[in-house]
Design a protein that fits this description.
The chain has about 600 residues and is of the alpha+beta class. Among the domains are: about 150 residues, no CATH class; about 120 residues, Immunoglobulin-like (Sandwich), CATH 2.60.40. Helices cover about 55% and strands about 10% of the residues. It is built from 24 helices and ten strands. A five-stranded mixed sheet has the order 3-10-9-6-7. The chain has a three-stranded antiparallel sheet with strand order 4-5-8, with no helix packed on it. A hairpin with a 2-residue loop joins strand 1 and strand 2. Helix 15 packs across helix 19. It is globular and about 80 Å long. It starts with a helix and ends with a strand. Keywords: Membrane, Transmembrane, Transmembrane helix. This is Glycosyltransferase RgtA/B/C/D-like domain-containing protein. It comes from Emticicia agri.
């Protein structure tokens, strides 16, 4: 009984800790794609008059994706709560992670092991590395859920012979495809499962469903202008594609231990990804070699043949791992090919790490094919320790990111509240009168090309429309009380600084570079830290000055969680034109301690 209680604790504790962390840190503020993908969609939905127009809008393209699930979630949230509440949408997205323990527990039954073997999987799933899932609603509902739908569908196809399970799996694959572009790979990855486990009639139906789904997705599909040309990436950046692919899957290891040296960071991630993909490729090619090469010598003294024999011992278990490997592998390949020209750092974006960490689960489960049953218990114990550390370090790694993001979003909504508009400029020459015009009346909102509002001329006018409609019509963006506290502290409770900080400001053609020494940010603060504020008679604009957390080894030596130096760039186009008083200072105990003040002109 004690063992069972311990197992339940190890399963429930990381799940509870994860959702407490999410609930405490997520808040009702949109970001980036949320403006047009969620609120822009809802505003357009209300302006469509016929069922056909609404259906077309649901399936319409956003960038290279069709995001019907995001849009259905938006409609559900609005109709249930009367508003677009981003915190609710983010909680909806991460709640689907609760499906995966049931899926993988059913898989573990195929090798006749108990509930304890699920513990390492729980530690891998419920970690905080995909931190953007709690700050970016579309990310939570898009690249996060698409993987979950696919893995769930694989289990239904393989482990349930009933007709409803077949149709439910196809529905999930369709939903995955129309949630994020890589969801189409769930259909392809499931082919071995359909061939093995489903009836002849279902195989024919599956082919029809796949053809129809792909036709519907690519019907009237347009290449988004903001994305690099794939053929250019293939011909000019093949080396980066390869590096991106392996770094994509190895990135959780790097992010967890916080290596800031770029060369070391990239090398570690690439090596880890190469080892994991290499091992799983060995399993795949061993199976294919002995299965389809008639001249292969079947000798039990050969390690590879013994591996092949073990793979056959658990056919459904290994077929599921194959489908999962193909799904995440193809997703990683698509990411690498599409993003190569944007540099290797793209592989470390936290919003894609739900895909990456699934490969860690596949790696853990695949190891049972080479270990004797007598060693499984010892392997489980080691796996629990390793994955527990993986889980705990994810909180350490993300804590600093959480605090910096909340400072950023806090000032973002504060700037919008103070100035009646949101400053977001994509180009150096984006100082257009329309970009600064406050919105005073409801307007019909156009959908920009491919329903994508980012990085196109005139974007500010569109975003301003959405923000105005949101404030008036969607009952959204009532700033949290803490934003008012921040406002009062920054602009009203100003005092002279008595600390040892020093500030150097370099005035460039289009930026301010702010360098600070001897800074100190207490661990675990919510909004305390360093800011640059710009004020005149018309405008008040604030920017947080980020400071990165130390590496773990430095933290042990200094007992300081944050570095003592800040070096940031503030872009002038993010500040309205005119003369401003610029103050650099520290927010602490609801007071803004001014370190340096000077007058500046923004042309």
């Amino acid at each position: 009984m004690k063992n069972k209680a311990g197992i339940y604790f190890l399963i429930l504790a990381p799940i509870i800790a994860f959702y407490v962390f999410v609930e405490r840190n997520a808040f009702n503020i949109g970001w980036n794609d949320d403006w047009h993908g969620i609120e822009g969609f809802l505003a357009s939905w209300m302006q469509q008059t016929t069922f056909g127009e609404k259906l077309t809008l649901l399936f319409s393209q956003m960038c290279e994706h069709r995001i019907i699930y995001v849009r259905l979630s938006t409609l559900l949230c609005y109709n249930l709560f009367g508003e677009v509440n981003y915190k609710i949408l983010m909680l909806m997205g991460v709640s689907y992670l609760l499906i995966l323990p049931f899926v993988f527990y059913r898989l573990l039954k195929e090798i006749n092991v108990g509930l304890a073997y699920l513990v390492p999987i729980i530690f891998i799933i419920f970690n905080t590395q995909p931190i953007e899932n709690i700050f970016w609603a579309i990310t939570s509902l898009q690249p996060n859920t698409v993987i979950i739908f696919g893995l769930w569908g694989f289990g239904l196809l393989l482990f349930n012979k009933k007709a409803w399970a077949f149709y439910m799996a196809n529905f999930l694959f369709f939903l995955a495809m129309f949630t994020n572009g890589n969801g189409m790979f769930s259909f392809l990855a499931a082919i071995p499962l359909v061939l093995y486990a489903r009836t002849k009639s279902e195989k024919i139906q599956y082919l029809i469903i796949v053809v129809f789904s792909f036709w519907l997705y690519f019907h009237d599909f347009q290449k988004p202008g903001i994305r690099p040309d794939v053929m250019v990436n293939i011909t000019q950046f093949p080396h980066i594609i390869l590096g991106d692919f392996f770094a994509f899957f190895g990135s959780p290891i790097d992010s967890t231990v916080q290596i800031y040296d770029i060369t070391v960071k990239h090398v570690v991630a690439i090596v880890v990804g190469l080892v994991m993909i290499g091992w799983l490729a060995v399993l795949l090619f061993t199976f294919l070699y002995y299965r389809f090469w008639s001249k292969a010598k079947k000798n039990m003294h050969n390690w590879f043949y013994r591996l092949y024999d073990k793979l056959l011992k658990y056919p459904k278990f290994n077929l599921y791992l194959l489908a999962a490997f193909l799904f995440v592998g193809l997703s990683g390949a698509a990411f690498s090919v599409s993003r190569a020209s944007q540099g290797l750092e793209q592989a470390f974006a936290s919003r894609y790490k739900t895909v990456s960490i699934i490969l860690f689960i596949v790696l853990y489960l695949s190891s049972f094919n080479i270990l004797p049953v007598s060693q499984w218990k010892k392997y489980l114990q080691i796996s629990i320790i390793v994955t527990l550390l993986f889980n705990l370090f994810s909180y350490y790694e993300s804590w600093d990111d959480v605090e910096n993001r909340r400072r950023f979003f806090g000032t973002t909504i504060l700037n919008w509240k103070n100035n009646g508009r949101y400053y977001y400029y994509a180009f150096p020459d984006s100082r257009n009168p329309d970009d600064h015009a406050p919105i005073t009346q409801y307007q019909r909102l156009p959908i920009p090309p491919l329903n994508y509002a980012g990085f196109v001329p005139g974007i500010m006018k569109y975003v301003n429309d959405i923000l105005w409609v949101s404030r008036v019509h969607f009952k959204n963006y009532t700033p949290p009380a803490e934003i008012d506290v921040m406002h009062k502290a920054l602009y009203e409770n100003q005092v002279a600084n008595t600390g040892n900080e020093t500030v150097k400001i370099t005035d460039g053609s289009n930026t301010f570079r702010i360098e600070m020494e001897n800074v100190f940010v207490p661990f675990g603060t919510r909004y305390d830290g360093y800011y640059a504020i710009f004020t005149n008679e018309k405008n008040r604009v604030a920017f947080p000055l980020e400071t990165q957390a130390n590496k773990f080894t430095t933290f042990l030596g200094t007992q300081r969680f944050y570095n003592n130096r800040i070096d940031v760039i503030v872009a002038k186009p993010e500040i309205p034109s005119g003369q401003f008083s610029m103050k650099i200072g520290k927010l602490e105990n609801n007071q803004f301690k001014v370190i340096k003040e000077q007058t500046i002109n923004i042309q």
